[in-house]
Amino acid sequence: MLQRENHLFGYTRSKRSQGSVPAGLTLAGDLASVFNARWVRAWCCADPLRPPRLHRAQLLSGIKLLALYAQREGGNTLETEVERHQVGELALAINSFYGPDIGEPNWPAGDVSVQLMVSAELNNPEPILNGLVRTRCLLGPVLEDYLERLKGQVPPPPFERIFTLLNGLNFRDFLDITLYLYFEQSQMLEELMSTNKMAYIDIRLPKRYVSGKNMANWAQPMAASLDYLPSLVRGSELDIAFFFDMTIFRQFPLWRSGGYKYFLIDPMFLAERLSSHGFYWTVANGLVDDRLRYQFQCLWGELVQEYVRQLLGESFPTEPQSFLRRPTYADDGSEVFDCAVLLGDGLIPIEIKGSVLPIADKYAAKADPFYQGVSAKFGSGPGAGVEQLLRNIEHILSAEHRRESSQIPSGRIRRILPIVIVHEPIFRFGGLARTLATEFTTGLKRLKIRPPVEPFYVYPFQLLTVEELERLQPYIQEGDFDLFDCVRSKAKEDPDYQLGLWEFITTRFLPTKGIKPRANEKMIGRFEWLTKAQSWRVYRGDYYDHSLAERRKATGYAIICARPVGGDKLLWDEVIAYQEYASAKEAYKAICAIADTEFPKQPISADYFECHVVNEFGVPIKEPE
Fold first, then answer.
1. Reduced to 3 DSSP states, what percent helix, strand and coil does the chain have, rounded to the nearest 5?
2. Fewest CB within 10 angstroms: 165, 359, 489, 601, which?
3. How far apart are CA 461 and CA 467, in angstroms?
């Protein structure tokens, strides 16, 4: 349904240096010499006998250096050997910052490990499927249910209304246009690389599907002017963190030239805006008031917790009483754990953390500040995940002052499996589970607890990201294995936490048990329906300003639209273009056939489907006589 539009993006080539300006590197007004595909290849292959191999972080570091120091006029045409070698020398210089020089001692292993984790996060973005569905859930049914439970209390500020007033687009509009441009850019990538061209958005040009005004509103929250780039780049190349901190690209994935041209630095940063982590920064960065920004941060953390609770609650359909949504103490009603699972004589206490690592700690490229930040936010720091688990395990099993909870029968607990679920994406890589497990084990030894029955066993601490829980959910729902058995196997086969829990399950546990891989069919079905609905909104002209010009002549086609009724709350307002017909007569014949039978089975949950015949602009068509 979404057709390619060749003039959505402009095309340009590198310009030659003018007059007596020396052929050096430049931050040209149109950025052609920076993002030209030929320029990148020249950088990577300046010397065929000694080609420097650069990864994404190194290329982005080069762009940061150009933003700081490149001349504003002239430029490198990349057409002579000398010019290509200039770029190659810059590449080699950047490469030298990612390891010790010849003859220098090796860098500390801890520092290297932290740097590898940060690079892994940059080079392995979250799948767009998980990110988009989760974001839409957080902004839709999760937020609605959260506000419903707050009735009678002070609600959070109306952040979507604030976002709309500031940017001219609501949350769904922003995500729709982001997804549209992501798909458009993906389709053009091969052509751009093969023709040495670059892509940009020019909001002055007519658009068939998105008006220049809507495009400008969409770009504004995440665009930076070329004139201000030097002041936006954090730090200096004299600090090793400069070569790992790509915050500027996450804050401003678009760079604006002349007030109307927008250049995308890296498609990864556009896709990231669809994820729950990237969308959080879209909204937070647009809130100029510190108090509002803090309130949104708190709200987003609450929504992430509620989303995880929903996933876990759906994971035990045959034993709904096993899931404890928010267990509380009997004495004061305060929370025991964020949630918990009771399986026979086993208790799985769970803490959910929607926090993110502070930028200064995450991208320090040094082990000490990085792990201090991890500990403060997720480990043994006050209110952190490990600290909360230990404190409340001691409360419910205290040898002296035990606190009771009506939802947790502490008198029959023989097994405890502690889990922290995090939203911070860096936890998908490296041995951070080992770091937090060490803090948990150390703290457990200091607890004054009296096991209610013997034998009593506390399983090794486990860490999961929200994405890993989404992947794990179908196995739990179908009863493929018991989490206690799984963690017991992991403790035996991987006592040093070389593998994360999810990595162990997929690479060791499932093959050993002969369990076939499962996809999260619910999430896939949601993604397919959401993207179809997004395509239909774009195609029918929701984001096109019809007062400016005709989009195109009507074709006369008739389209059957379908909307799910009941079932999945996320999809209640999501209408798709189900089938296209050459005439209204054919469409009504088909819709009558559907009414006589039933709507074809779809991979989503719905009681039934409401269907209408419309034209290609979404206007209802009357049934022909």
1. 50, 10, 40
2. 601
3. 19
Structure tokens at 335: 């929370």
CB-based contacts of 84-88 (< 8 A; 24+ apart in sequence): 84/42, 84/46, 85/46, 85/47, 86/23, 86/24, 86/25, 87/25, 87/39, 87/42, 87/43, 87/46, 88/42, 88/43, 88/46, 88/47, 88/52
| pLDDT tens profile 276-323 | 999 998 998 888 889 999 999 999 999 999 999 999 999 988 788 899
Q: Please check the confidence at residue 260 and state whether its pLDDT lies above 50.
A: yes
Non-local (6+) Cβ contacts of 363 within 8 A are 118, 241, 244, 245, 246, 247
Mean pLDDT of 112-129: 90
Q: Is the pLDDT of residue 25 over 70?
A: no
Tell me which long-range contacts 466-469 makes (C-beta under 8 A, separation of at least 24).
Answer: 466/134, 466/276, 466/304, 466/307, 466/308, 466/421, 466/422, 466/423, 467/126, 467/127, 467/130, 467/428, 468/428, 468/500, 468/501, 468/502, 469/308, 469/311, 469/312, 469/421
> Which residue is listed with tokens 């020249």?
42
- Statement: residue 615 has pLDDT above 70: yes
3-state class (DSSP) for residue 19: coil
Residue 612, both tokens: 């209408």
Q: Considering only CA atoms, which of 266, 264, 255 is closest in space to residue 122?
A: 266
3-state secondary structure at position 332: coil
Instruction: Record the tokens describing residue 409, joined without a space.
Output: 């029968």
Question: In the block, which residue shows the tokens 């499962």?
Answer: 518
Exposed, middle or buried by CB within 10 Å (0-12, 13-18, 19+), for 529? buried
β-pairing, 9-12 with 198-202? antiparallel
Least confident of 47-56, 65-74, 107-116: 47-56
**CA–CA separation, 294 and 283 (whole Å):** 12
Give the Cα separation of 111 and 141 in Å (integer). Answer: 42
What is the pLDDT confidence band of residue 33, given thresholds at 50, 70 and 90? Answer: very low
Terminal-residue alpha carbon distance, the chain: 29
pLDDT at residue 454 above 80? no
Instruction: State both tokens at 180.
Output: 């549209």
Tokens of 25: 């590197």
Integer Cα distance of 533 and 577 in angstroms: 7
pLDDT at 19: 28
pLDDT for position 80: 85
What pLDDT score was predicted for residue 461? 94
Task: For residue 385, give the nearest of 440, 426, 340, 438 by alpha carbon.
Answer: 440
Could you give the residue ranges of the DSSP H alpha helices within 428-482? 432-446, 466-477
